[in-house]
C-alpha cells in the first residue's frame, strides 16, 4: 500500500511542479507583453476611441453591410493606395507584418513548440 501512495505522491508532486512552472512562465510573458503593449501604446500615441468616433464607425459599417457599391469603392481605394502614397503603403505593409507576427506568436503558443508540432506519443516505430 505504501508503494502506491509513494507513486501517487510522486505523480502529484511532479504535476504541481510542472503547473507552477507553467503559471510562472505565463505570468512572466504576460507582464512582458503588457510592457511591450504600453511601449507601443505610448510610442504610437494611441488612445481609445471616443463615443462619437465609435458611433461613426459603427454606422459606416452598417451602411457598408446595407449597400453593395461600398465594396467596389474600398477595392478602388486599396489599389490606389500604393500608387499615390508610398508612406501609407509602407505603414500598411508594416501593419500587415505586425499582424502576421501576432498570428505566428499565437501559433507558437498554441503548439507549445517553436517549430513543428509536439509529439505526444512515445511509441517506437519499427
UniProtKB/TrEMBL annotation:
One of its Pfam families is ATP-synt_G
Biological process GO terms, please? proton motive force-driven ATP synthesis
What is the first-listed, main subcellular location in coarse terms? mitochondrion
One GO molecular-function annotation for this sequence?
proton transmembrane transporter activity
UniProt keyword annotation of Transport present: yes
Where in the cell? Mitochondrion membrane
At the top level, the lineage of the source is Eukaryota
GO cellular component term of the entry, any: proton-transporting ATP synthase complex
Q: Which residues form a coiled coil?
A: none
**UniProtKB keywords:** ATP synthesis, CF(0), Hydrogen ion transport, Ion transport, Membrane, Mitochondrion, Transport
Q: Which InterPro entries does its entry note? A: ATP_synth_F0_gsu_mt
Protein family according to the UniProt entry: Belongs to the ATPase g subunit family.
The molecule here is called Uncharacterized protein
Amino acid at each position: 500500500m505504501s508503494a502506491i501512495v509513494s507513486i501517487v505522491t510522486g505523480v502529484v508532486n511532479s504535476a504541481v511542479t510542472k503547473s507552477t512552472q507553467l503559471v510562472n512562465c505565463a505570468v512572466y510573458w504576460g507582464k512582458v507583453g503588457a510592457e511591450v503593449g504600453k511601449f507601443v501604446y505610448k510610442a504610437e500615441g494611441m488612445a481609445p476611441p471616443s463615443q462619437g468616433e465609435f458611433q461613426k464607425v459603427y454606422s459606416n459599417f452598417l451602411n457598408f453591410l446595407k449597400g453593395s457599391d461600398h465594396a467596389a469603392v474600398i477595392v478602388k481605394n486599396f489599389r490606389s493606395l500604393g500608387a499615390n502614397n508610398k508612406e501609407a503603403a509602407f505603414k500598411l505593409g508594416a501593419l500587415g507584418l505586425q499582424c502576421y507576427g501576432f498570428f505566428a506568436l499565437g501559433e507558437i503558443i498554441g503548439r507549445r513548440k517553436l517549430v513543428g508540432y509536439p509529439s505526444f506519443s512515445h511509441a517506437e516505430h519499427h
